[in-house]
Specification:
15 helices; TIM Barrel; eight-stranded parallel barrel; 338 residues; two-stranded antiparallel ribbon; alpha/beta
């Protein structure tokens, strides 16, 4: 098949680790746990999967082989672990423990605008603190030999934001970062306005670091339409659409793929139930339900049946009964408003 011009022309290689294709699943809180990653792996088509943003200090107390946030299975392929780091204290110890999982990359989040994260000194707050950010990067680079990535936004919306952003790019380059993922919104914007994809050319041209595009990317057709704006980037990252359609990357590579929605849903539930205790499993199933429901013409009915269920067995029974009736499938899926 022909390769769309928005796809990177070549695989992305960082410190000897090659990601092919350079299509990535974004870290999503409450969603990119081991169970969803396992289902994504069943379909394939991506270059790497990201974990949820993980509290770095929690790694010291989690069971790395059973925790649904940390565990990985061989079939997942390449997995990047994203960390919420607020200081360099105990970071060498954290990375030593994480090394047992053989991460294919380490991603430090300096983008998250959530107030709770910022109050801890993480996410977008760390972007603003040059001294602390430099110290964390220096310690991370000294204690992790693999690809070191950064997830960032544009910083605060101030007149001199471009100068501030360029300064951060120089800092990342100086401290051994290998690539960055850019979500082109300001920290204050949350998801209130469209991502500024027109900025990729200008900002990617201002650094030697490969830049991965992230933010409001939802389909192959859309990225095709944005070909000129996305061309300067080295990879594409997709988020909520992948939660709705775990077969997203596989269908990108094979447009004729036929999806069995009942089978996909049941496998996802099986995987969640395997990795989480029953009460937590029900929470996780309900958390992904609004995304999956977007595939269905009467998704609101599916959503109400599952999220209104009092227990796990009822939720699964209601969902299976609904999907077994072969409901109409929406021709185009959007995740706006979730």
């Amino acid at each position: 098949m022909s390769v769309p011009p928005t796809l990177p022309r070549a695989p992305l290689t960082l410190r000897g680790v090659t990601f092919a294709p350079a299509l990535f699943c974004a870290p999503m809180a409450g969603l990119t746990h081991s169970a969803l990653r396992r289902l994504l792996a069943d379909y394939g088509g991506y270059g790497a999967l990201w974990t949820e943003m993980l509290c770095a200090r929690q790694i010291l107390v989690e069971n790395i082989h059973t925790s649904p946030w940390l565990k990985r299975r061989p079939q997942e392929g390449q997995v990047i672990y994203q960390l919420l780091v607020t200081s360099a204290e105990r970071l060498p110890e954290i990375l030593e423990r994480l090394a047992a999982l053989r991460p294919d990359g380490l991603d430090l989040n300096i983008a998250c605008p959530a107030p709770g994260i910022r109050r801890q000194g993480g996410g977008a707050d760390l972007f603003e603190d040059e001294v602390r950010l430099r110290e964390i990067l220096r310690v991370a680079r000294a204690n992790f030999a693999g690809p070191l990535l950064i997830k960032t936004r544009l910083g605060r919306e101030i007149p001199e934001w471009r100068q501030k952003f360029r300064e951060r790019l120089r800092l990342l380059e100086d401290e051994g970062v290998d690539a960055l993922t850019l979500h082109p919104r300001f920290a204050e914007e949350q998801l209130k306005r469209s991502a500024r994809q027109a900025l990729y050319g200008e900002l990617a041209g201002g650094t030697r670091l490969p830049m991965i595009a992230s933010g409001d990317l939802i389909s192959q057709d859309q990225t095709q339409a944005l070909a000129a704006q996305l061309a300067p980037t080295a990879g594409l990252m997709f988020g909520r659409i992948v939660a709705a359609q775990p077969w997203f990357f596989a269908k990108w590579q094979n447009p004729g793929l036929v999806v069995d929605y009942l089978d996909a849903w049941n496998r996802l539930c099986d995987y969640i139930c395997e990795d989480f205790p029953a009460t937590k499993a029900l929470e996780r199933i309900k958390q992904i339900t609004p995304y999956f429901a977007r595939n269905l013409y009467f998704g609101h009915t599916f959503f109400a049946k599952v999220t209104g269920a009092p227990d796990l067995a009822t939720a699964r029974g209601r969902a299976s009964e609904f999907l077994a009736q072969n409901p109409l499938i929406a021709p185009r899926v959007t995740v706006n408003g979730i």
